[in-house]
Amino acid sequence: MVKVGIIGGTGYVGAELIRLLMNHKEVTISGISSVSFSGQDISSIYPSFYNITSLICTDEDAVIEKSDVIFAALPHGLSEHIAKKVLDKNKICIDMGADFRLSDENVYKKWYGKSFDLSELHGSEVYGLPELNRAKIKETKLVANPGCYATSIELALLPLISKGLIEENGIIADSKSGVSGAGRALSQSSHFTDCNESLSAYKIANHRHTPEIEEVLNSASLDKKVKLIFTPHLLPINRGILSTIYTTPKEKIDLVDIHKEFSEFYSTEPFVNVLPLGEIAKINNVRLSNYCQISLHYDEDSNKLILISCIDNMIKGAAGQGIQNMNILLGFDEKEGLNTIAPAF
């Protein structure tokens, strides 16, 4: 059995990793760390684990020492030093945060307000979107797990961008996420009375997933001119992302042909489902699963190709995708530990 440790095991992503990894046939959870809850049983923090696991939060060095694979589920700026400790021991690090998602240090500094702490590590990471980088993921020891919004938008646009079928400048992505996307830390915007029975935009024109999406799509683009207008919104639900993406085809299209392009592009992908024409993707169809569901729509009068992309932000947008990357890297069945489908209601 491969021994897996989680640094930052008490946040929402850490808790999802524990829940999913407990059902994984090839691994065992060797330890979890937490600064805030050191010495506490995970079930005292998340009672859903009561009488199921007795994991105790310890310090990060102890977790690294007894693990083969480390998931770093930490806020940005904290994972680089963890990654160095892990890599120095010739072990595998999957960073669930943002420290390795951007390759250009100047871009990172612009959006995150700081330079890389350990520049020598950068360039060795692989961006962990399996549908784009599966072959590279197999060969690395450092995976940069994508952001949740980025995952939903990139998966919807990759078939179009890679074939040069749409105008790359002026793509509009309107995304809505459940409150868990804001993390476990208390904030005014995630208070029940602030978010319940409401819908609000935030970080308009300055969300940090914007440069990540542009970099990834430009890496797959023919023209390298992708520019995105991205506005995220907070939905009064626990989990899930729905992205509505507006694109302009370079030429008049037949939606049947575009649907065929998508279906062929994702024909061998275990976790991306392109819906039949006329169907509309929705969050409930992917909730509690590692699936991405995409639907295609065309407004002939305005020549706009509209994409709807839905994921569970905590699974395909975080913990599930991290485990999918681990499975690829270790040669396991890619779906191991991730075989759940959304509840019927």
UniProtKB/TrEMBL annotation:
Pathways per UniProt: Amino-acid biosynthesis; L-arginine biosynthesis; N(2)-acetyl-L-ornithine from L-glutamate: step 3/4
SUPFAM superfamilies recorded: Glyceraldehyde-3-phosphate dehydrogenase-like, C-terminal domain, NAD(P)-binding Rossmann-fold domains
InterPro entries in the record: AGPR, AGPR_AS, AGPR_dimerisation_dom, AGPR_type-1, NAD(P)-bd_dom_sf, Semialdehyde_DH_NAD-bd
Catalytic center residues: 148
This enzyme's EC code(s): 1.2.1.38
Catalytic reactions of this protein: N-acetyl-L-glutamate 5-semialdehyde + phosphate + NADP(+) = N-acetyl-L-glutamyl 5-phosphate + NADPH + H(+)
Name the UniProt record assigns to this protein: N-acetyl-gamma-glutamyl-phosphate reductase
Species per Swiss-Prot/TrEMBL record: Clostridium intestinale DSM 6191
Lineage summary: Bacteria, Bacillati, Bacillota, Clostridia, Eubacteriales
